[in-house]
């Protein structure tokens, strides 16, 4: 399973449910008593679950990364554990949920089966379709380059990071009945005034640092070293234009990531 820093998870997950929580309606959060957030990371979803459940409901965050749990523990009680071997007893939660976890596992259905072991009622997975991400930008080249880099990354990564609606297949493979699905489009926008995250991202584009970090994955697919070098050169040129537009306060960018919420019921 890939590892992520606390800063990365905060940056990618913060604001996830600020504009709407309608896609979580099938989880029946107002009726829950015991909720387990598996792969909770730094606790962004845990905070939402804690806010949307009754005051006497216990929301527990679970992650294998102790450093991430340190941050999550500021919001909810936490427990260290692997998604495939949860350190809790059978049927001890009435909702087990994860967000952007199954896309990082080689066998998502194995985790779903483990979720169903520890749930007495519902399990839910909120998984992105990274193959359907769209980017709109005031920098003409950015959308096409982002798509090109994304396709190469998807070709080289060793898990299904475009799981999305296919999460249903993982539930069915684990013999869990799917009772509801919903799609939620999460928009991440960059507009003036620019925060530190936007400025840091622009600098990474201009230096090509982001693509360099993913070089091994990008080259694991069909992308050749020469094609990678061409992509990185074009990416850096695009990044310099981003930096220029930020300096002029004219840069705007919206990335839309579709998430699919899949809910299953555990047989009594």
TrEMBL record:
The protein's matches in InterPro entries, at most eight in alphabetical order, are given as: Methyltransf_11, SAM-dependent_MTases_sf
Which EC numbers characterise this protein's activity in its record? 2.1.1.-
**One annotated GO biological process:** methylation
**Gene3D superfamilies in the record, alphabetically?**
Vaccinia Virus protein VP39 (3.40.50.150)
Q: Could you tell me one molecular function GO term of this UniProt entry?
A: methyltransferase activity
Record's SUPFAM superfamilies?
Answer: S-adenosyl-L-methionine-dependent methyltransferases (SSF53335)
Ranges of residues in domain Methyltransferase type: 36-118
Class in the EC hierarchy, top level: transferase
Q: Where is this region: Disordered?
A: 191-211
Q: Which Pfam families match?
A: Methyltransf_11 (PF08241)
Its name, as the record gives it, is Class I SAM-dependent methyltransferase
Q: Which organism is it from?
A: Halovivax cerinus
């Amino acid at each position: 399973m890939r590892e992520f820093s606390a800063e990365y998870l905060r940056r990618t997950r913060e604001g996830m449910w600020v504009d709407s929580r309608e896609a979580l309606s099938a989880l029946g959060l107002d009726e829950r008593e015991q909720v387990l957030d598996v792969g909770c990371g730094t606790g962004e979803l845990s905070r939402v679950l804690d806010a949307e459940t009754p005051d006497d409901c216990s929301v527990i965050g679970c992650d294998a990364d102790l450093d991430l749990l340190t941050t999550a523990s500021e919001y909810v009680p936490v427990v260290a554990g692997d998604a495939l071997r949860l350190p809790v007893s059978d049927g001890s939660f009435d909702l087990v949920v994860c967000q952007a976890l199954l896309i990082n596992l080689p066998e998502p259905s194995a985790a779903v089966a483990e979720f169903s072991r520890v749930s007495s009622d519902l399990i839910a997975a909120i998984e992105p379709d990274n193959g359907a991400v769209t980017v709109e930008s005031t920098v003409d080249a950015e959308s096409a380059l982002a798509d090109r880099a994304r396709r190469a990354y998807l070709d080289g990564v060793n898990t299904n990071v475009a799981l999305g609606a296919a999460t249903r297949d993982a539930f069915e493979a684990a013999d869990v009945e799917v009772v509801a699905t919903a799609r939620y489009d999460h928009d991440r926008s960059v507009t003036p005034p620019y925060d530190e995250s936007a400025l840091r991202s622009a600098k990474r584009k201009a230096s090509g640092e982001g693509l360099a970090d993913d070089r091994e994955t990008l080259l694991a697919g069909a992308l050749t070293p020469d094609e990678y070098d061409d992509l990185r050169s074009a990416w850096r040129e695009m990044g310099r234009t981003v930096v220029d537009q930020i300096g002029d306060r004219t840069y705007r960018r919206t990335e839309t990531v579709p998430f699919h919420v899949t809910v299953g019921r555990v047989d009594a």
